[in-house]
Design a protein that fits this description.
The protein has 391 residues and is an alpha+beta fold. It has a single domain, classed as tRNA-splicing ligase RtcB (Alpha-Beta Complex). The protein is built from ten helices and 17 strands. Strands 10-6-8-7-17-15-14 form a seven-stranded antiparallel sheet. It has a six-stranded mixed sheet with strand order 1-2-3-4-12-11. The chain is globular and about 65 Å long.
């Protein structure tokens, strides 16, 4: 653990953090409602307002941009009883999953499946407003992957056991909710002449209608994200069930253990004897014995972990590898030959649109895990053999 200053604790050497991200950390830590300090995870990198990989404990306020616009983004992982030898045709499984789950930005379901309809009904029941006024297509987006670094993978652990893993969030409706409240916070700061080190650190104050509206939307979007992952994982398991057993109806036999965790979210927790808002932007909750998944980039390892409940990290841990190069820079630096080499032995969609997701565009996940030794205990190390991504 390193101290950048009295209000910023880093779980990686400060000299390994880019200068722009260090400035963001200093700016975030300077906000008057920060409780104790800002905790910065080993995978941190430059973001909007706050760095990705930042944990904020706040009293009396939340910074919407410190939650981000992919509200509730996270991981679901299912341990199966299968071994690698049971999966005879990886290419066909990849193609079937791509057929069942819409991928890439703006691609939604054409109709609602029965399970998706049940989940939509639950979201409607807990909603405090009509979310079609924010995103008319949110219902058809439930059960869709999106693009960028979102993925579905089949992987094996150190014993050869097959895991099904998936990374996604709250899709378009979460993005619109996030941007809506970031804008409201900025308008509030401008109206009240609030001086900010960065306009994206604009905040909403507790016990105001604006704050309450944001929290209601935030919690709804976080639940959407969780159910979105569950819906997609159910479909993945149906594909695997059909491939292994010849029927999609034996999914229960495939599930030994399930993990579902957010890494962009905010909630009330107790730390150092006080109730505070904990905002994790690119970080997972890591209470003792709480299971989670920390993914690497495509073509590298991922980790199944349990938390160590480190108090200085507000019971948090890193969420993944974190980008080393921007998407634009990655496309200039690397070639399709580089991507093909990095993905040797892995079934994936050979497309130029995936070039900016090349493993070399990300930080070394093993280095991230090494720096996280005081935050998590590694239970399993995964290596993927099928990778599925949208554009």
């Amino acid at each position: 653990m390193y101290r950048l200053n009295d209000k910023a604790v880093l779980f990686l050497p400060p000299n390994t953090v880019e200068a722009s991200a260090l400035r963001q950390i200093e700016n975030t830590a300077s906000m008057g409602f920060i409780f104790k300090h800002v905790a910065v995870m080993p995978d941190c990198h430059f973001g909007r307002g706050a760095t990705v990989g930042t944990v904020l404990a706040t009293q009396g306020a939340i910074i919407p941009a410190a939650v981000g616009v992919d509200i509730g983004c996270g991981m679901v992982a299912v341990k199966t009883p299968l071994g690698r030898g049971d999966v005879a045709d990886p290419a066909r499984i990849r193609q079937e999953i791509e057929r069942r789950i819409p991928m890439s930005a703006g691609h939604n379901n054409k109709t609602l499946s029965e399970t998706a309809a049940d989940r939509v009904a639950h979201l409607e029941a807990i909603a405090k407003k009509d979310y079609e006024s924010i995103d008319r297509s949110w219902k058809l987006a439930l059960g869709t992957l999106g693009g960028g670094n979102h993925f579905i993978e089949l992987a094996t652990d150190e014993s050869g056991t097959v895991w099904l893993t998936l990374h996604s969030g709250s899709r378009g409706v979460g993005n619109k909710i996030g941007n809506l409240h970031i804008k409201k916070a900025q308008q509030h700061a401008a109206t009240k002449n609030i001086s900010l080190p960065d306009r994206d650190l604009a905040y909403l104050t507790e016990h105001t209608p604006e704050f309450d509206d944001y929290v209601a939307d935030l919690r709804w979007a976080q639940e959407f994200a969780r159910l979105n992952r569950e819906e997609m994982m159910d479909r993945v398991m149906m594909v695997v069930s059909h491939a292994i057993y010849g029927t999609p109806d034996r999914t229960r036999e495939l599930e030994v253990q399930r993990i579902n965790c957010h890494h962009n979210f905010s909630q009330v927790e107790t730390h150092f004897g006080q109730q505070v808002w904990i905002t994790r932007k690119g970080a997972i909750q890591a209470k003792r014995d709480m299971w989670a998944m920390i993914p690497g980039s495509m073509g590298t390892r991922s980790y199944i972990v349990t938390g160590l409940e480190n108090p200085m990290a507000f019971h948090s841990a890193p969420h993944g590898a974190g980008r080393r190069y921007s998407r634009t820079a990655a496309r200039k630096l690397f070639t399709m030959n580089d991507l093909e080499t990095a993905m040797t032995g892995i079934e994936f969609r050979h497309s130029h649109v995936l070039l900016d997701e090349i493993p070399s565009a990300y930080k070394d996940i093993d280095e991230v895990i090494e720096n996280a030794k005081s935050l998590i205990e590694v239970k399993h190390t995964l290596r993927q053999f099928i990778n599925i991504k949208g554009d």
